[in-house]
Design brief:
Elements (H helix, E strand, L loop, with lengths): L6 H22 L2 E5 L10 E5 L1 H5 L3 E5 L3 H16 L9 E2 L10 E5 L2 H5 L5 H7 L6 E5 L15 H6 L7
Parallel strand pairs: 3-6
Antiparallel strand pairs: 1-2, 2-3, 4-5, 5-6
Length: 167
Amino acid sequence: MPRELSDEEFEARAAQLMTELEAGIAVEGWWDTGVFPTEDAPGPNYNYTTGFYKSWDHPELIIAGLDPDTAHRILGSIAREVAAGLPVVRGRPITGILASDTLHLRARGFDQALAAGGVVCSVTNRYYGRRTIPYLQIEWPDTEGRFPGDEGMDPGMEAKQAIGGRP
């Protein structure tokens, strides 16, 4: 079992992460953070962005339940579109994100209070300080094309996308 970090060690690691994050945002315009369930903090894995709001005045993005590499590729593809002036719009389908893929995605609003609570998007919250930042959750469908909240959505697929208990 890993030992707990002291407050000083935690702050030193957090400062190093912020330095790396700022350098990444300076080059790419954004940063991707992956969160993975543990025994103490169960739930779906998810990735979220930092930098969309600063770089492009665009909501930060969250995507859950996919393997980290796929999630990163999706967020990277969306980042390139946003940087080119094509914002993600809530409810509008997102297509053509992964090359030669027919995956259709959509965005919905994400509870800012949940995001700002410090647990869900802690790196982004640390980066922006106490500012309220808008978020969108990128959703993906089940094999029948149904999204979370749609009647008949595969419950297992829906659970993979539930962040902070939110379906």
